[in-house]
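sorry for the late reply, my laptop died twice this morning and i had to redo everyting from scratch. anyway the thing you sent over, i finally got around to it. pasting the sequence first so we're on the same page, its 352 residues, then the predicted structure underneath. double check i copied it right bc i was rushing
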Amino acid sequence: MVAEAKKRELKEAQRKKKVMKERIKQEESIASAMLAWNNEILPNWENMRGTRRVRELWWQGLPPNVRGKVWSLAVGNELNITPELYEIFLSRAKERWRIFSETGSETETEESGADRESSLEVIKLDISRTFPSLFIFQKGGPYHDVLHSILGAYTCYRPDVGYVQGMSFIAAVLILNLEEPDAFIAFANLLNKPCQLAFFRVDHELMMKYFASFEVFFEENLPRLFHHFKSCSLTPDLYLIDWIFTLYSRPLPLDVACRVWDVFCRDGEEFLFRTGLGILRLFEEVLLQMDFIHMAQFLTRLPDDLPSDALFACIATTQMLSGNRKWAQVFLALMKDSKDAEKTSSPALKSS
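ok and here's the structure:
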């Protein structure tokens, strides 16, 4: 036991040293890319965003001083939200808070049967749990009120979605990189993407299609681990839900999560699942030695010192191809199969 403990300590020390080296290397790489982003790429965004050089720079991680701008451009604003519209919904949220503080109830919510807005207390509780080690989102911290404002305004903007746990992490990451109105615009547009909308609306049928698609590529890329998970009855929902709900901002170290966001903004939902496979690849050998309980615990609380470059090396070797089918083709095929199955099992069809 003593020898094993010493071995773990040595391994931990080596890991920390490696993380430090990788961090320095990444900072140097980002610093060298900063001028290119500011002076060449952003001024010519539409012409350069899809070029090989820009995609390669993007993969390496966006410089902090351009990250928010690139995210906003990449996510887009299909909802056509303006800062003025944000102020309108923020004012409405503040009015709801005032009513709540005076009466102890949300009368407007009670009047609307289809309204899925959560209570203000749930939002407040989640804010206190958002990156607690940073303290900046805690009560009295510099970003507490901003985070509260964005989440409150969103529940008024999209009462059909309402507030769902996990949203606070997404809003917080945006706040760290964008001014308040721009953070809200990016937040609303991100949550309007098909994958995020399916999860935050808790559309079980669609979520199951995402899990099934993930498993297709899981088996393709990591067959040993896939069958180990199957033998232990460890299903994707037990770890993927938290990863997708927070866009990896809760399970991963913040700097690593931001790098995942960089490429997610470039590649879309496919990259979220590719990242999941990258995490499983990174810890494959460790997971193969675990039983159900230990795997579930490990995947819901990943190591705090998870190395960025090692993860991205694993993501890079993860192929999102099953046969000749890409992610979108596999997902659409599963959707079609489901609809076909519904048609064949329809009572109307059977009676005809």
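Residues 227 and 315 are 20 Å apart (CA to CA).
thats about all i looked at so far, will dig more tmrw
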